Amino acid sequence: MPTTVKGVVALAEKQPAELVDIVIPDPGPHDVVVDIEATGVCHTDLAYRDGGINDEFPFLLGHESAGRVSVIGESVTHVQVGDYVVLNWRAVCGECRACKKGVQQYCFDTHNASQPMTLTDGTALTAALGIGSFAEKTLVHEGQCTKVSEDAPAEVAGLLGCGVMAGIGASLNTGQVQRGESLAVIGLGGVGCAAIAGATLAGATTIIGLDVDEKKLAAAKDLGATHTVHTAGMSPQEVAEKVQELTGGFGADVVVDAVGIPQTYETAFYARDLAGRVVLVGVPRPGVELTLPLLDVFGRGGALKSSWYGDCLPERDFPYLIDLFLQGRLPLDRFVTGRTDLAGTDAALSSLHEGDILRTVVEVAK
Question: What is its cofactor (predicted)?
Fold first, then answer.
């Protein structure tokens, strides 16, 4: 039987998201229903609400979640009822050209639920990143569920579903930071601070955090930054020169741009050492263009990389990172800087414009 629950829906562009009744259909053969326990408030959901992704309204918002499987389709084998899971938006297909080449992190045909959730009048909802978890329950493909240790609180485990994984993966997977290397991160929101934490895990010995906000610089220091730079009023060239100064005059081995605007990318490009790596994990707005001298692109060598979801494989990375948290080696709990309930979700989304928090978590009453 379909189930009616509460969910946070963006009905129209740049309008407040509303807590309304939504209908969870019976799962298809490979679908599962997950009872949501906690969901992080991510900039991507703000972009959905404000029309920055596409115009496929209404959106069921939320995607950074942990919860428990409550119903499974008849052909589901990946999880069982009662499993504690983190939701992911990279349920790899195993059949596309990327998967067959062994680079599943670029899977071009990831799985989602076989049917949409709806409003009570039957209007189909577009689930944010194929998840839609600002809700009491959601419907996803079984491959979107990654089992993790139940010892990790949901408000912590769920953060791996998007932003924190993106940042850690930008350092570990995309940037491939090595022991003894140097790393600089431009933009110290949740993703940028996670990149700092990832570099700490990797054994980087010089870790530089750059931002215009003193609170964010302090957060980066708390998560492992060895140096911080307040960049307000500095030109891209001046910021790059500061990074070079802190790395023996050479530049960082890896520079992560967690903002995604031309000025920060230019800084990242020139702040790296010769043959260093630039990692773009901040998502640019549509229509933004970048101009760099082609001779400099050639002459500086190295690699210019984009990081999608931290180039993660959820089945590999989520359990590993949760285990590190439980061992006290990865302070995921420090990313939780606010809490609210489903009714407070829209206010939490709007507060992202202020930029003074790492993650607010929406906790769903059990």
Answer: Zn(2+)
